[in-house]
Amino acid sequence: MSASDRDLVAALRAELAAVDPSRSCDRIAEIAGLGPRPVTREATVARLIVRLGGHAGPTRRSFVLPEVDFDWPSAADHCRFAWLRGRFLARGSLSLAAGRAHLEFVVPPDEAPELAARLGQVGLPASWRVRRGLGVVTWKSAESIASFLGRIGASGSLLELEARSVARSLRGELNRVLNAESANLQRSVAASGRQLAAIDALEQDGRLAKQPRTVRAVAHARRETPEASLSEIAARLDLHRSAVQRALDRLERLALHDDEGVGRRGYAGRRAVAHGPKGRREAPAPLA
Fold this sequence. Notes:
By secondary structure, this protein is α+β, with helices and mostly antiparallel strands. It has eleven helices and six strands.
């Protein structure tokens, strides 16, 4: 993760750790979720544990909380989410690497299916597996992650997370549009270059003057406005766009062949018109 993503995850966890349950049942549920022997490096979570009646344990970064009974099947939803908040702070992690959200709980292997079942019961189904001897319960759906974090008490940090997700989506869409426009512009420039070369070649051998009035008008308009699109030339000449396209195609074909279809030498733009970079035959690309 980038530094800003790590800062956001830290802020989100700090926000959850700062939640102060008003109901005694929620406090008991959160203690049960943290577990009797939580281990943490986070000062915010350590302060939460002390606030809930815990104290430092026998080893570094370990704590001791009173053992409490928590009956999940009969618990109210607010108690269930207090328990899940404690479980996330004790055993959960959130990653935002590469613009993708990934949340997982790492728990004892026998707890993983039970935790996944509990999440399913509150409308947040998750997958689980055993990895390196530990149970891993996972979400990769940004929607599920946002719903879970919102329901366990995140608010300000969650809004920032969603804003970043929207910004990434907009940047991606903008990049796609710009890339498509750039490709269209390159094709238009290449097509205009071929057409101008064909017009020059036909004028030099005198055949341009023998073409129908519409073809000559289109050739004149192309010369005057090399950057114009087919639609712009059509509007200028009061023609259909298809008529402009046919006239330009005719000019390119005539530059490659004489009137009887025999290939011509001496057309400087011949290879550029007829072939791609590796010698494959390509149809003339129209201007957008």
